[in-house]
Design a protein that fits this description.
Largest sheet: 6 strands, mixed
Radius of gyration: 26 Å
Helix content: 25-40%
Shape: elongated
Strand content: 15-25%
Order of helices and strands: HHEEHEHEEEHH
Number of helices: 6
Oligomer: single chain
Structural class: alpha/beta
């Protein structure tokens, strides 16, 4: 006579054990898939910011090349879902594309500035490698005494242009300059 208890093994031998094992395997697969998916959704958007080119040669304002790039970096550092880096020197747009690809970033910011008649005019381009159809060019203009606002349009548009995701508490953090003290920022930028 068979001494196996059919209430624990089922009518087909070890089928219940197999079912339990499959449920465990499926549960583990779901947990692993969810972990991978959530880490992918929360991965930082990597952005490389290049120094800006002077469209006209005004020695008094040369510090803006690195200063505008540093201001963008300072604003982006407020956002948890962004990993930002500054490139140390100005390069042409074609070279910027190659360098950014070699750094394996998701997007890069490249631009130029012009100093004229008491104003700073900034034109910049954002290149998003994963979605090249995103908005690319942004312009801004501001008086010298409030020149960091010349990049407000660009900075507030960076999440859309780069695909970065903002937490609810981070909305609006890119809209405002890191300082209103232009002289102090100039001293900071000249030291870069």
């Amino acid at each position: 006579s068979d001494s196996t208890d059919r209430s624990t093994t089922g009518p087909y031998g070890h089928l219940r054990y197999w079912e339990a094992d499959m449920k465990r395997v499926i549960h583990i697969c779901i947990v692993v898939a969810w972990t991978l998916l959530s880490s992918t959704l929360h991965a930082a958007t990597r952005i490389l910011v290049f120094p800006f080119e002077a469209a006209n040669n005004v020695p008094r304002w040369e510090w803006l090349s690195h200063g505008l790039a540093a201001e963008i970096e300072l604003r982006l550092l407020r956002i948890s879902s962004v990993d930002v880096a500054l490139y140390p020197e100005y390069v042409s747009a074609a070279k910027a594309n190659r360098i950014a690809r070699s750094h394996r970033v998701d997007a890069f910011v490249h631009g130029e500035y012009r100093v004229e008649g008491g104003f700073v005019e900034v034109t910049r381009e954002v290149v998003n490698f994963s979605n090249p159809d995103m908005p690319r060019s942004f312009d801004g203009r501001a008086p010298f005494e409030n020149l960091l606002t010349s990049i407000d349009n660009l900075c507030s548009s960076l999440p859309v242009a780069t695909g970065a995701r903002l937490l609810r508490a981070e909305r609006g953090l890119l809209d405002h300059p890191s300082t209103i003290n232009t002289k102090g920022f100039e001293s900071y930028a000249e030291g870069l």
